[in-house]
Automatic annotation (TrEMBL), chains A, B:
Name of protein: PadR family transcriptional regulator
InterPro entries reported for this sequence: Tscrpt_reg_PadR_C, Tscrpt_reg_PadR_N, WH-like_DNA-bd_sf, WH_DNA-bd_sf
Domain Transcription regulator PadR N-terminal: start-end pairs: 11-85
Domain Transcription regulator PadR C-terminal: 98-179
Amino acid sequence: MARESTCRFAILGMLCREPMSGYDLRSAIERSVGHFWQESYGNLYPTLKQMAQEHLVELEPEEPSRGGRVRKAYRVTEAGRTALAQWLRRPVLPHVERNELLLKLFFGAQVGPTDSLAQVERSRSEAEGLLAALRLIDENVRHSRGDDPERPYWHLSIRAGLLGLEAHLRWCDEAREALQRMERTPGSTKKRKAK
Amino acid sequence: MARESTCRFAILGMLCREPMSGYDLRSAIERSVGHFWQESYGNLYPTLKQMAQEHLVELEPEEPSRGGRVRKAYRVTEAGRTALAQWLRRPVLPHVERNELLLKLFFGAQVGPTDSLAQVERSRSEAEGLLAALRLIDENVRHSRGDDPERPYWHLSIRAGLLGLEAHLRWCDEAREALQRMERTPGSTKKRKAK
DNA sequence: GGCCGGATATATCAGCCTGATATATCGCCG
DNA sequence: CGGCGATATATCAGGCTGATATATCCGGCC
């Protein structure tokens, strides 16, 4: 009925690089694409089970060296590789991203600009933190991984993050100014006291 | 267990402006905040029912003028207004937005830059369409609604969209160039033929 | 030796949300 | 009067999150 699980393809893409367990998948995803994609265990484990039934992935033969410790490492099958390749070619279908900050601002019109201003400030400092973190990762990638064929792709995704965050910071500054102007000229916003 | 329904607050915010039915809510949301927030009927109707049970909203007394046509118009209660005001003050909790385009690009490293290039081109022209549409809305808002107290908030949300889309376009251009460079120097990407 | 805490590891579930589907009525135009 | 598009509500499969439960391994510390 609804849209196709994207989690399946995140799994396939990661397993193509190296066979892994569900636990490892989560951290590998976090480490490599964590700034624009994350997966929860509650999504990964059931999806892996399903995909194994559909023969898109399969369990690696268990090495008994690890004692009684349970550990299931998965590996892509040829069918899995094909499914991934097809998905990669399929166009990304457009989707309106929900923006909770903007929604709160919009309804803030009914309350007054002061609370909105606080939201914008919070968002701004959060974005600054993310920006600093991304710049650090960028430096890291630039210096290590001299010959990794994935390197230009890392750089592309980091650039997307940087440009997006910089745009957001610029918007925050605009919004701050506009809201401060509105605070000085009370206008027709009705004030509602906090609980 | 999981996070709080944001739909509830979208409903409350909209009903504070004017009492409405579920159907009207959907179009009012689409018209006013549609470029950063949307709600589906499958979400609205059950949520409205719940909220009525919790006395956050209530049915307006039915006017019998409309014949047998079923129509339920909801109105906010005082409790609803309080709940909205509290939500507006609560900080937006940070969330990593999934970006399917970047995911496809990242895994594109295993396939070659040609398909990635196509994805970037598609995304670019989609963004250009959205940008043109937003600019039109911006013009509209600028000229009509001369004294609407909501006007500066409209402008704020439109500016967020514009800056974001412009940043995305700039990224698309960077990405295009990088991928074209990679196409010319085959490097170590393995090619996989389509099905 | 024994104990604790943090990392490793898998599983399950409530609840939010989307997109699809079903159903029925109303007003208008030809 | 028949068809079509807008109005209107409802339901459901299935994706996904965040919380919770459970158990093991390993290293450090007393």
